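Batch manifest, entry 17 of 40.
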Amino acid sequence: MGKGLMGKRIALAASRKIEEMTTLVEKQEGEVVVRSLQGTVMVAEKEVEPQLRQLIEEGADWVILTTGIGGETLLNMAKQAGIEESFLSLLKQAKVAGRGYKTYKLLKQWGIEPAARDDDGTTQGLIRSLESCDFKDQKVVVQLHGDPAPKLIRFLEERGAKVTTILPYLHIAPEAQVVNQLCQEIIDNKVDAVCFTAAIQVRFFFDYVLEQGLLDNILKAFESNVVAVAVGKVSAEALHDEGITRVLAPEHERMGAMIMELAKYYE
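Output type: C-alpha cells
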C-alpha cells in the first residue's frame, strides 16, 4: 500500500462510512480527524404523506427527482400509506426528470424513461437538459433533498411553471462547536485537507463561516495550505459556489476514489 498521505492530517466532514474512509487514509499512512458537518437525516413522514396524497389526487405535468434516496424515500412512504401503485402510476403518466446516476438507476428499476436527465450529476447539468422544454402553465413537482435548490426553482418559475416542492428528508445542522473546531484547524493549518461527501456539508459549513465573519481567512487557507476535496461533481460545484477555486475531485464519484485521488495529489 502507498504512503501518499504520510504525515498528513485529513478532516472528514462526512457522517457516513467514516470507518471505511479512516481505514483508507491510515493505509496511506495519514491521520484522520472526524468533523461531521451533517446532522442526522430526519424523514418528515407526517408532513409528506398528505403532500403525496394531494399530488396523486391533483396529478402533475412534470416530476423532478433530485436524488435517488429522495425518490426511494417517497416510494417507501407511498408504500406505507398503501398508495404505492397510484404513486408509480402518476410518475408513469407525468414527464419525469432526474439528477444523478442513482436517480437514473432508480427510474430504470421502476420502468420509467426520464424525459430529461443531467449530463454531469449537477443541478446545472439538469437545468441544461430542461432548457428546450416548455414549462408555461405546467404543474411541476420538485423533490428536494434538504437543500432549497434556488437555481432550479428560479429557472422553472421564470419559464412559467407552477412549482410545488416536496421534501422527504431533512438534514440537521451540525453542532456549532464541531464547525468552530474545524474552522480553527483550517485557519491554523492544523489539517492538510478537508473531505466533503455531500453538498449539504458545504452549505452548513459556509453558513457558519459567514455568520462568524471568517470567510476571508477560510478562503485564504484553502488557497494556500489546505486542500478542499469533494467526493463528486455536486459537492465540487457547492465548493466552487462558495468561492473555493482549488477543489480536488475523483473521476468516479466514490469515497474510496476520493481518498486515492488525494493520496495521488500529494505523491
